[in-house]
Amino acid sequence: MKILSIHKRSSHHPHFSEDFFYSFQLTDDIFVCAVMDGCSSAKDSQFTSVLYSKSIHKSCRMLPQMKAIIEDFDLSTMALEDVADFILNQLFDDLKKTKKLFFLTTEELLSTVNLLIYNTKDLNACIKMSGDGLFAINGEITNIDQNNTPNFLGYHLSEKFDVIKDDVIQTWNFKNINDVSISTDGIDKLIKATKSHEELTKIRHMFLVQTPTENGILFLEDQFEALHKNGYILHDDLSIIRIVNK
Fold first, then answer.
1. Is residue 63 classed as helix, strand or coil in its secondary structure?
2. What is the Cα 229 distance to its own chain's centre?
3. For the whole model, what pTM was predicted?
4. CB 3.0–4.6 Å: which of 9, 91, 133, 190 could bond 17 by disulfide?
5. Which residues make beta-bridge pairs with 88?
6. Residue 159: DSSP 8-state
7. Hey, what's the torsion of the CAs at 70, 71, 74, 75, to 10 degrees?
8. Strand arrangement of the beta sheet that strand 111-119 belongs to
9. Segment 148-204, tens digit of pLDDT
């Protein structure tokens, strides 16, 4: 099994990347991965995407210890979607607390989140997304495009998570998965001259579908470097995590 990742800063962001990514082995069989894209028109977006990652990591540290707090809590029998809901519920609460603690405005807490929970043994996957982004399942690519106006989780902090989660967070569950990727929309901003449908398809396929080389830990980096040498320029930050389990 290979876990591939890439994180690149856009040519338009000279100081900070507004993207961030995260991966963690939760149990022997379950991996938690996420890519975040801070809102470019908001404030200190690099802080927001990192904050989301820190909250997700906190939840991953909490989950194995929850049985000591709640007797009937059993991580080993939880559905992947329940694991994802736990993480996002904690994230929502952490955003509320952070906003209050540091006197932040809404525009300082805006980021997309594309969350993957994957069982390497059962080959099941759950993806939850707030905002826009892409994912690929066994070579089939799905693009969630919200016309540059993502419905950020941070817009809804005055509400309750259970009330807004089905409207703000999209959910997909999959079985028999041996190749799964999640990506920020920066993958569609890697452009040479024109942004044609053919070019978008080509770039997505190179990162999310093409079979990695045998020693493919740097496969995504190699793909990026090949495009860069050929004149392609990244006009937005990019984060991709791909798990190949064959």
1. helix
2. 27
3. 0.94
4. 9
5. none
6. S
7. 40
8. 19-25, 30-38, 111-119, 124-130, 170-174
9. 788 999 999 999 999 999 999 999 999 999 999 999 999 998 988 767 788 889 999
